[in-house]
């Protein structure tokens, strides 16, 4: 809606007001468009799977690939990725529980290969931006090789 007003200097000014609902709809359209564009382009992980980008591959199966994280957060930090793209672990679990089992089994195998299975390791799936997910192709972070400490705690 266009609102006309007289400024203190006597000139005519105009301002626009948009209802919260219209703004919400606009944001939803923009996000859908972004999702469409993102789904049309390959993620970094798909480029690694297709051998278009180099990676230090630790283990590979018919359905999964595991490679070292280029910015490790632990002594052992390996990403375990299904070769079929799903945005996050919840989407993968709903669409293909068998593939999720393959990812977890690959993580267990990698933990053995890396020598962290017996002492312990953490397998984490970040889901969504608030959780720190930056590549929207589901992947588990296998972390180990030293004491990882307690899980995240709520802020005080």
TrEMBL record:
Q: Which residues form the active site?
A: 139
Gene3D superfamilies referenced in this protein's UniProt entry, alphabetically: HIT-like
Q: Which domain of life is it from?
A: Bacteria
What CDD domains does the entry give?
A: PKCI_related
What the entry lists under InterPro entries is as follows: Histidine_triad_HIT, HIT-like, HIT-like_sf
Per the Swiss-Prot or TrEMBL annotation, the motif Histidine triad motif is positioned at 137-141
Per the database record, which ranges form the HIT domain? 44-153
Which SUPFAM superfamilies is this protein grouped with?
HIT-like
Q: In the record, what terms sit under GO molecular function?
A: catalytic activity
Tell me what this protein is called: Histidine triad (HIT) family protein
Origin organism is Haloechinothrix alba
């Amino acid at each position: 809606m266009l609102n006309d007003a007289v400024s203190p200097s006597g000139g005519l000014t105009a301002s626009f007001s948009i209802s919260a609902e219209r703004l919400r709809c606009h944001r939803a359209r923009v996000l859908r468009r972004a999702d469409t564009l993102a789904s049309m382009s390959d993620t970094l992980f798909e480029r690694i799977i297709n051998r278009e980008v180099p990676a230090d591959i630790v283990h590979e199966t018919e359905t999964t690939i595991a490679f070292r994280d280029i910015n490790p957060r632990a002594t052992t930090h390996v990403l375990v990725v299904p070769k079929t793209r799903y945005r996050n672990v919840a989407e993968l679990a709903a669409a293909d529980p068998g593939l999720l089992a393959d990812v977890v089994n690959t993580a267990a195998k990698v933990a053995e290969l890396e020598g962290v299975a017996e002492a312990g390791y953490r397998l984490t799936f970040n889901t969504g931006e608030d959780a720190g997910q930056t590549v929207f192709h589901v992947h588990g972070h296998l972390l180990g090789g030293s004491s990882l400490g307690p899980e995240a705690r709520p802020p005080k």
